[in-house]
Amino acid sequence: MKSWLQRCQILIMIGVFVLGSMAGCGKQKVEDKKMGKEVEKSMKLEEEEKEKHPVVLRLEGGDWGFPNPFKHYPRGPGGFKTELVYDSLLEKNEEKEIPWLAKEYTISEDGKEYIFTLRENAKWHDGTPFTAEDVKFTFDYYRDHPPVWNNLLIDGNYIVEKAEILNENKVKLIVDEKNTTYLSKIGAVRIIPKHIWEKVEDPTQYEGDGVGVGCGPFVLENYSSEHGSYQFKAFGDYWGPKQKVDGIEYIPVSDSILAFENGDIDFLTATPDIVSRYENNSEYKLTQNKPFFGYRLIFNMEKRPELKEVALRKAIAYGLDRQEMVGKVARGSGIVASMAYLPVEHGWYNEAITQYTYEPEKAKELLQGKKYQFELLTGNSPQEVKIAELMKISLEKVGVQVQIKSVDMKTRDSAVKAGNYEWVITRHGGWGKDPDSLREHYGITTLKGAGSPASGGIPGYFNQEINDLCWKQMVQMNPEERRETIFKIQELVAEEVPMIPLFNTIDIFVTRPQKFDGWMFRYDHNYMDACKLSYVEREVEE
Description:
This protein is of the alpha+beta class. 32% of the residues lie in helices and 20% in strands. The chain is built from 14 helices and 21 strands. The strands form six sheets. The chain has a six-stranded mixed β-sheet, sandwiched between helices. It has a four-stranded mixed β-sheet with strand order 1-12-11-10, with no helix packed on it. Strand 2 and strand 3 (97-99) form a beta hairpin. Helix 7 (310-319) runs antiparallel to helix 9 and helix 13 runs antiparallel to helix 14 (479-496). The N and C termini lie far apart (81 Å). The relative contact order is 0.14.
C-alpha cells in the first residue's frame, strides 16, 4: 500500500511540474509576443521621429548656375549638383564605372556597337516613365545641342554615329571607332527627358516647365542665383538605391570655419593650421584626399611665339620655386606637380620622367642673357594671387619680368576658353581621371567643344610625335600596351614643357559622423561632397 501511495505521489508531482512548465511556456510566449509588439512599436516611433526630423545636409553655397546639363557653370560644383538631379547610364564608384540607369551592357567584337539594357522601373521627377526613347533622344539631341560637359565631342567630332532602340528597354549606340575611352565617356552622359526637350530649340535659354526635371535621386526644390543657394529633396519614386539623407542644401556663408563650428554647415575643408582643433575629438572625423586638385601655368604660344622655344619654357620651369608654393600657398599640404601632368598617386604615373627642381642658375644658362616680359593672368582668390606674386619674384631673378593681372574667376575662365591671355594660372580638380586627359591637354588640334576651363589644348603648341601617341593610346585595348604609350607621352611632355603643372593640393575634410557618415570618393576625383554616391545606399548591381 505504501509503495502504491508513493507512486501516486510521484505521478502527482510530475503532473504538477509539467503543468507548471506548460504555464511557464505559455507565459514566455505571451512575453515574447509582447516584446515583439514593443520592438515593432519602437521601430514605428523611430520612423515617425525620422519623418518629423529629416536628415538634411547643409553644405557651403555659391552660385554655380542652374543644375541642368545646359545651364550649369562648367566647373565641378556646377556639374556635380546637376548629377544629383540627372542620372547617367553608368556611375563611378571608388574603383570603376558601375551600372546605373543601364543595368548591364555589351560591346561588340569590333568595338563599335554598345548595347545597354535599361532599368524598367525608373521615372522622371514629374512621374513620366523613363524609356529607351529618352536615351536615344538624348544622344541625338546632344549632337546639335551640346551640354556644358560634353563627353561625346572629341577634337570637334561627335563620336556617336547612330542611336537605335532595339526594344522597350534596350538601346544600341554605334560609335565612329573602336576606342578604349568610349565606355566611360558614353556612360557619363546625363540622360534628359524627351517629352520636355523635344520641342526646345535653344536649351541654354529655356526656362519653362520641366527645366530641372531629371530621374536622379534628388529633386531640385529651390535655386537662387542671387544668394548662391540650392535646395534638393530626396525623390520618393527613385528607381535606385535609397537616399541616405532626406535633403541637401547649399547655403551662403561668409566664414566656412565659423559656420561649421556653429553647426550651420556639415562639411569643412580644413586648412592645415586649424586641423588640430578637430583632432582627437570624437565629435569629428578627419579624412584626407588624394592630390587630384591642382594649379597649372599655361602658355599662349599664338600670342607670344617666342614661347615655342623649348629652352625658354625649360628656363621658366627651372626658375620657378614650386616647392615654395607648396609651403606658402598650400601651407605644406600638397606636392610639387609632375611636369607631365599625371600626379604621383595616379595609377598611370611615370616616375622616370625629367624632374624640374628650383635651379635659377640653370635657368639663366638656358636664357643666355636674353630678357623677357610677359603678362600673367590669374584669378583673384588669395591662393592664386599669392602664386602669381611668388612667380614674379623668382622669375625676376633669372631675367623674366612678369606683370600680374588679377580678375574674378569667371572672367579668367572665359579668357582661358577664348585664348585671351599670354600666361594664365588656372586651377581645377579631376587630375585623377583616365590618362586620356594627356590627349585633352597636349594632343588636340582644335579647342572646339572644350566646355570646361580645365580642358582644351595649349594655344599654338603642336608636337607631331606626342600628338600621334595621344591618339594611339585611345585605340589600344590591351592595358599593358596602352600603359607603355602613356608612359612614353609623359617622357616626351616632360622634355617639352608645353605648360607647367605647378602643384597639387592635399585636403583634410572634417565631418560629423554622428549626423552623417556616408561620405566616399570617386576613383578619379578628390572631393567627397561632390560624389553622388555619397548620398545614396550602395544597394545596386555592380
